[in-house]
Amino acid sequence: MTKRIVAFSRLKDSHLEQLRQEFHVDYFERLDNTDDPDFRAALAQAHGMVGSGLRITPELLDEAPHLEAIATISVGYDNYPVDELTRRGILLCNTPDVLTETTADTGFLLIMTAARRAVELAEFVKRGDWQESIGESHFGSDVHGKTLGMIGLGRIGAAIARRGALGFGMPVLYSNASPKPALEKELGAKRCEMDELLAQSDFVCVTVPLSADTEHLIGAREFKLMKPSAIFVNIARGKVVDEAALIAALEMGEIHAAGLDVFEQEPLSPESPLPYMPNVVALPHIGSATHETRDAMAQRSVDNITLALKGKRPISLVNQDAWQHRHQ
Ligand code: DGY
């Protein structure tokens, strides 16, 4: 029997071709929501799913009685009910490693552009406002030598910290569930309580995954603890931050500026004041969005689902217990 896959994100021809050599593929290049009747019909027969950007609920899983594995084209998996997938013995695969350096580049891009006001000042030039030598009112803040506070020091956090410590001579503080002795040695990073990190850092950069424990981890109290000169950077997930509290902190001058790649609602609501604030750099969730990296992520997902549906262990498996469940 040829197994069936639902592909619910745009894939390039070579990736689709690779899947079609092994499986029947129902391809939904652009799917805005899961109510699409063709998608539901395909799901009812699917053994595998590949894609990103859809919220997968237990109710939706009820519609997919043959499902064996899902390969998300992302490292984050907050759109998936992991416990429920595990309970049903459905493998969830993601794409770590291949996007680490690209996403860290984005993190550092936000640090640099927010500190040096690059977007605001590029707009100033574009408007034709550069009529004389710029003065103090257009100066930014240094990055090199300033203290970098990393909230989360996983793969991406470590890659940002490495850029800061080795490239820009930044002392690094970090808060993380577990200590990272190798990074402490390599980068001179110092683990501390989050409150201490917030009070001492010039740049506060969030890279923790979204979970019940990290939702609104940073709110009004945390912004009040930061320096008025602090620059806040979020490349994790929007919901890790209480966005209303962030807006208030920026408006009241409790922090100096923010660089944001992620938002509580994506795409960002047209009503949000954030993109119009001069001290905010807002990007449309581009963390991993380069040709090379998105290609590598799609390839990893295609490889993951192919292995999983052939009964082999996928390269990056989120729920190890589901593997035991299927193969014990
Ligand atoms: C990820 O892979 O989780 C990035 O945020 C892109 O969605």
Features:
single chain, 328 residues, alpha/beta, Rossmann fold, five-stranded parallel β-sheet, globular, binds (2R)-2,3-dihydroxypropanoic acid, EC 1.1.1.79, D-isomer_2-hydroxyacid_DH, D-isomer_DH_NAD-bd, NAD, Glyoxylate/hydroxypyruvate reductase B
Beta-strand percentage? Answer: 5-15%
CATH class of the largest domain, named Alpha Beta
Helix content: 25-40%
Largest sheet: 7 strands, parallel
The 3D shape can be described as globular
The small molecules bound here are: (2R)-2,3-dihydroxypropanoic acid
The oligomeric state is: single chain
Number of domains: 2
**Count of DSSP E strands?**
12
| Rg (C-alpha, Å) | 22 Å
Residue windows where pLDDT falls under 50 for at least 5 positions: none
Concise overview:
The protein has 328 residues and is α/β, with parallel strands linked by helices. It has helices at residues 13-20, 37-43, 58-62, 82-87, 100-116, 118-126, 155-168, 181-187, 194-200, 220-225, 243-251, 291-309, 320-327, and strands spanning 4-7, 24-27, 48-51, 69-72, 91-93, 148-151, 172-175, 190-191, 203-206, 231-234, 257-260, 280-282.
List the SSEs and their pairings.
Layout: E1 4-7, H1 13-20, E2 24-27, H2 37-43, E3 48-51, H3 58-62, E4 69-72, H4 82-87, E5 91-93, H5 100-116, H6 118-126, E6 148-151, H7 155-168, E7 172-175, H8 181-187, E8 190-191, H9 194-200, E9 203-206, H10 220-225, E10 231-234, H11 243-251, E11 257-260, E12 280-282, H12 291-309, H13 320-327
Parallel strand pairs: 1-2, 1-3, 3-4, 4-5, 6-7, 6-9, 7-8, 9-10, 10-11, 11-12
Helix pairs in contact: 1-12, 5-7
Bound molecules: (2R)-2,3-dihydroxypropanoic acid.
